[in-house]
Amino acid sequence: MAEFVIRVGGRSAQGRRPNNEDRFIAEPGGHVFLVADGMGGQEGGEKASGMAADIIPRVIEDRLAAHDDPGHAVQEALAMANQAIIDAGHKQVGSRKMGTTAVLAVQQDNQVYVAGLGDSRAYLIRGDRVDQLTVDHTVADALARNGTLTPDQAKSSPWRNVLYKFLGCAEMSEGAEGQAFTPQAGDRLVLGSDGLTNFVTDADLREGASQNRNPQEWADYLVEAALGRGSKDNVTCVVVAFDPE
């Protein structure tokens, strides 16, 4: 029996961009929480993120209702969204590509399964510890992981914004890396687009988790902080709070 109740908050801001290509899912009582960041370098980013926010929760809920494993349900949903976005891109004028990142969490049977494609991130904050649960699928981060670049070099690399995995990628040979964790009372899970995560620190997450008990107020604060620190991108955040009963 869970010793916590789940509360959620979400916020998306257009920022300095001409439109908002981010989408999020943060429904109270829902099983699926998601942030999708339509790729500004791709045509149809806004449409792609909207398709991800529509397809992924629907497929996951259907698979969970059929007693599928959450991890398999997530991979199935991402694969279906990927193919749908690829197909939609082929129908556009000039067959231009569409793309979006996606980071999501699925809560089922006292477990949370987290997965991501692209460079939107998931963080788990537990006490004084902050853990990034997802991997950035940028070329620069891949080069840092294999030792070709240092982490500092990766941050300033011209490859830091070039994705090799995302929804709408026809060349993607492997799906999203996923992992499960067992929530504890007091945990906070933060999902964010890169417009947010590039401008907030581990210290912000660590301190904010204790200072902002209301998840909606914290989501609002994190988005405003990123904008105030110079984020020129769309900024989106979902906070999932596992509060003591």
User: Can you tell me the CATH architecture?
Assistant: 4-Layer Sandwich
Order of helices and strands: EEEHHEEEEHHEEHHHE
General form: globular
Poorly predicted sequence stretches spanning 5 or more consecutive residues: none
- Overall domain count: 1
What structural category characterises the helix and strand content?
alpha+beta
Oligomeric state of shown chains: single chain
Strand order of the largest sheet: 1-10-9-6-7
Strand content: 25-35%
Gyration radius from CA atoms, angstroms: 17 Å
Mean pLDDT: 92
Distance between the termini: 11 Å
Number of helices: 7
CATH topology category name: Phosphatase 2c, domain 1
What is the CATH C-level name? Alpha Beta
Q: How many strands? A: 10
What's the story with the biggest beta sheet?
5 strands, antiparallel
* Helix content estimate: 25-40%
Would you identify the CATH H-level superfamily? PPM-type phosphatase domain
